[in-house]
Design a protein that fits this description.
eight-stranded parallel barrel, 8 strands, 15% strand
Length: 255
């Protein structure tokens, strides 16, 4: 059984003091341990250390929004996975659509980052998805297949069981539009079958697949009910304590 995973991607939002205020402002029930579910907060790098202390006693994990594919070197402004491990970071987002769009990240660079993340025992959350034009032209599966194959190329199969995929329909990010739960389930099921062909069925079954489009608290439970969707990568709604608490609670077993 795959545990549910709720990931808050704060992007370039919240100073350290604002991040601490957010944690303090979360309703008590959202800070309780959930059965078969995990919550990850991915703040800006500057807030990671303070949040590591702030979430002590709260069953949250911390994640980073990015990392470099080298452990050290002349890469001004970049973050090594060694830095993340020393700060008690468990998860790292790789290949978010905004990194691809604004910083020219490619499947090849994501492939290198994935290899090092796995080597360093970080849990990678690898983002893939189709653009507006891809979606309009009916190229969703073709685009995703190319991304998945390039990202997995040369990876050690034995290391890949912990890998988390985040399906980002780029046409839905920041637009308030959603791929429907049923559409997302179709994509997630197809992804799992493709990965089983590339690797094997047990590895594909162990991988968690998140929906990472525009996620609202009202629609979260509908996505989480789908058999191949194992969680959510939440952007804007994760910046509001009440909305994010509602999303967290949507992962709780139905009463």
């Amino acid at each position: 059984m795959r545990n549910k995973l709720i990931v808050a991607n704060w992007k370039m939002n919240f100073t350290v003091s604002e991040a601490l205020k957010f944690i303090a402002g979360l309703p008590r029930e959202a800070k309780m341990e959930l059965e078969d579910a995990e919550v990850v907060i991915c703040p800006p790098f500057t807030a990671l250390y303070a949040l590591d202390e702030a979430i002590e006693g709260i069953p949250f994990q911390l994640g980073a929004q990015n990392m470099h594919w080298e452990e050290s070197g002349p890469f001004t402004g970049e973050i090594s996975p060694l830095f993340l491990k020393e700060m008690n970071i468990k998860y790292v987002i790789l290949g978010h659509s905004e990194r691809r769009q604004h910083f020219q990240e490619t499947d090849s660079t994501i492939n290198k980052k994935l290899a090092l993340a796995l080597q360093q025992k970080l849990i990678p959350i690898v983002c893939i998805g189709e653009t507006v034009s891809d979606h309009k032209e009916g190229q969703t599966f073709e685009v995703l297949e190319g991304q998945i194959k390039k990202i997995l190329d040369g990876q050690l199969k034995a290391d890949l069981g912990s890998l988390v995929w985040a399906y980002e329909p780029i046409w839905a990010i920041g637009t308030g539009k959603n791929a429907s739960p049923e559409q997302s389930q179709e994509v997630a099921q197809w992804m799992r079958k493709l990965i089983a062909k590339i690797l094997d069925a047990p590895t594909a079954e162990s991988m968690r697949i998140l929906y990472g489009g525009s996620v609202s608290e009202e629609k979260a439970r509908g996505f989480l009910k789908q058999p191949d969707i194992d969680g959510l990568l939440v952007g804007g709604a994760s910046l509001d304590p009440k909305k994010f608490a509602d999303i967290i609670m949507s992962a709780a077993p139905a009463q």
